[in-house]
Specification:
Blueprint (H helix, E strand, L loop, with lengths): L18 H14 L2 E8 L4 E7 L2 E8 L1 H14 L11 E7 L17 E10 L2 E10 L14 H11 L4 E6 L6 H12 L6 E5 L9 E5 L8 H9 L5 E4 L5 H12 L3 E6 L6 H8 L4 H7 E13 L5 E4 L21 E4 L9 E12 L2 H8 L4 H10 L5 H10 L5 H7 L8
Parallel strand pairs: 7-11, 7-12, 8-9, 8-10, 10-11
Antiparallel strand pairs: 1-2, 1-6, 2-3, 4-5, 5-6, 12-15, 13-14
Helix pairs in contact: 1-2, 5-6, 6-8, 7-10, 8-9, 9-10
Length: 417
C-alpha cells in the first residue's frame, strides 16, 4: 500500500502554487543547490521531486498526483515535446531564463539561463521525467582544475601535444567525462588548430570550436557526421561517444592519419577501453598504432574545508605507505571526515579520481598481440600509472575527500591490493 512520505525541513512546499510558479520555484532551488538533475517521479498516490546534488539523490518536494501530472504536461509543452504521447520515451530541450534566487524578491531575477535537457519515460503509474540542468554561463573547463595529480596532468598534456592519435575517456554515466573532454579541447584551443566536435547533444558552446550535433530523428548519427567532418580538414576531432563499429573504425583510421581524436567509450578502468574497442570490431594492430592513451575516471565529493573533522593518524603511518612518494610536505598527517549537520552534508563540490594510461612501446605491443585487460592494467601500473586505489588514497591524504566517499564511488575490487 502506497503512502505519501513525510516532508522534511530540507524540502520546499509547492502545494498551493500554480503549476508554472511551482516549477519555477523547483528549478530555482535546484540551480541554487548546484544540482545536476531535477527529477519528477510518479508514485501510486503522489509525485516526488528529487534532485541529484554532487552525485547523490535527495528529495526536494512532494506534490499531489494532479499537480505532478499538470507539471509534467507544462514541461513537455515548453520543451516542444508531444503532450499527447505517454507510451514512448521522449526527449526535449528548453532554454530557461531569469532564474529567481530562493529568498529574493520578484524584481531580483538574474540572467542565469539554464539549458534544460528533458527525458520522459513511461513507468507503472505514469511518466517519469528527468531534467538535466546545464548552466549556459559555465566558465571554460581547465585541465588544472578537474582533479588530475601533477604526474597525470603531465601525462595528459603529453598525449594532447602528440601530432596525432586517439585519446579515450571512460567511466560510468555522471563520472565527469564531458568535463574532461571540454578541458582537453580548451587546452588545444589556441587558434592554431581547426577543432571539430560531434556531440549528442552540444552541452556547452565554446568560441573557436566547430560544433555539430547528431540528429537521430533524421538519421544523422555519429558515423555520418564523422565522415563529413573528416572532409573539413580538421586538426582535432572530438566524438561525444564511440558506440558502433563504423564510428570506432573511422576514428581509429582518422587517428592513424594524423588527426588528434578524442572520444568517450564505456569501460570500467583505463585498460578495459582496449577490450571495448575490440568488441566494436577494431583491428588490434590499427588500434595499437592509433591509441595514445586512456583516461578513466570517477567523481568523488570534496570535503567542505570549514566543516571537515580531522583525525590524527600519526600512530598508523602505514596507511599511506604505497603513495608517500607522491606527497607534499603536509600530506598524510591526518584523516578527514565530513562535518555534517544543520542540513549540510559536509561536502561542497566534486573532483575527479583518475587512471591515466599512456601507451609506451611495451603496452602498444601488448595491445597489438591481443593482451587482455588484467595484463594491460598490470603492465600500465608497472610503467607508472596511478591506479584508482593510489589516486583515491592521495586525495584522502590531502584532505580533499573522505575514505567513506571513496568506498561509495569506487568499486571495492579496484581498491584491493
Amino acid at each position: 500500500m502506497s503512502t505519501i512520505p513525510q516532508t522534511t525541513s530540507q524540502m520546499i512546499d509547492l502545494a498551493d502554487l500554480p503549476v508554472e510558479q511551482a516549477f519555477e520555484k523547483a528549478i530555482a532551488q535546484a540551480v541554487h543547490e548546484r544540482a545536476s538533475d531535477l527529477m519528477l517521479l510518479v508514485h501510486k498516490d503522489y509525485y516526488a521531486l528529487n534532485i541529484r546534488q554532487l552525485g547523490v539523490i535527495r528529495p526536494l518536494s512532494i506534490v499531489s498526483t494532479d499537480m505532478g501530472r499538470r507539471m509534467g504536461q507544462f514541461i513537455k509543452a515548453q520543451a516542444g515535446m508531444d503532450v499527447a504521447e505517454h507510451r514512448h520515451p521522449h526527449d526535449g530541450r528548453w532554454i530557461y531564463d531569469d532564474i529567481l534566487e530562493p529568498g529574493s524578491d520578484e524584481d531580483d531575477t538574474v540572467d542565469r539561463a539554464v539549458d534544460l535537457r528533458i527525458s520522459s519515460v513511461p513507468t507503472l503509474y505514469g511518466e517519469d521525467m528527468v531534467i538535466r540542468l546545464l548552466s549556459r554561463r559555465t566558465g571554460l573547463f581547465d585541465l588544472n582544475d578537474i582533479g588530475l595529480s601533477k604526474k597525470e596532468l603531465g601525462d595528459v598534456k603529453l598525449m594532447l601535444d602528440s601530432p596525432g592519435g586517439l585519446i579515450l575517456c571512460c567511466g560510468p554515466t555522471g563520472s565527469g567525462k564531458t568535463a574532461t573532454l571540454y578541458a582537453a579541447l580548451n587546452y588545444l584551443n589556441d587558434n592554431t588548430k581547426k577543432i571539430n566536435t560531434i556531440e549528442d547533444p552540444i552541452e556547452f558552446a565554446i568560441d573557436g570550436l566547430r560544433q555539430s550535433q547528431i540528429n537521430n530523428t533524421v538519421g544523422i548519427h555519429f558515423a555520418e557526421l564523422l565522415r563529413g567532418v573528416l572532409r573539413q580538414s580538421p586538426d582535432v576531432i572530438m566524438i561525444g561517444e564511440i558506440r558502433d563499429h563504423e564510428t570506432a573504425t573511422t576514428a581509429v583510421h582518422a587517428a592513424n592519419s594524423g588527426h588528434i581524436v578524442l572520444s568517450t567509450i564505456h569501460a570500467p578502468v583505463a585498460a578495459a577501453a582496449v577490450e571495448s574497442m575490440r568488441s566494436l570490431g577494431v583491428n588490434n594492430h590499427f588500434l595499437a598504432t592509433a591509441l595514445r592513451g586512456v583516461i578513466s575516471q570517477r567523481l568523488v565529493r570534496t570535503l567542505d574545508p570549514e566543516r571537515r573533522v580531522e583525525f590524527d593518524i600519526s600512530h598508523a603511518p602505514q596507511i599511506f605507505e604505497p603513495i608517500t612518494h607522491l606527497f607534499d610536505e603536509t600530506d598524510g598527517k591526518k584523516f578527514y571526515a565530513p562535518g555534517a549537520g544543520d542540513g549540510h552534508t559536509g561536502y561542497d563540490g566534486q573532483t575527479g579520481v583518475f587512471e591515466v594510461m599512456c601507451l609506451n612501446n611495451d603496452l602498444r605491443n601488448m595491445v597489438s598481440n591481443g593482451a587482455d585487460t588484467n595484463h594491460l592494467r598490470r603492465a600500465a601500473h608497472e610503467a607508472g600509472m596511478l591506479d584508482f586505489k593510489s589516486n583515491a588514497l592521495l586525495k584522502v591524504a590531502q584532505g580533499k575527500t573522505s575514505i567513506e566517499e571513496v568506498f561509495r564511488v569506487i568499486p571495492a575490487e579496484y581498491l584491493e591490493d
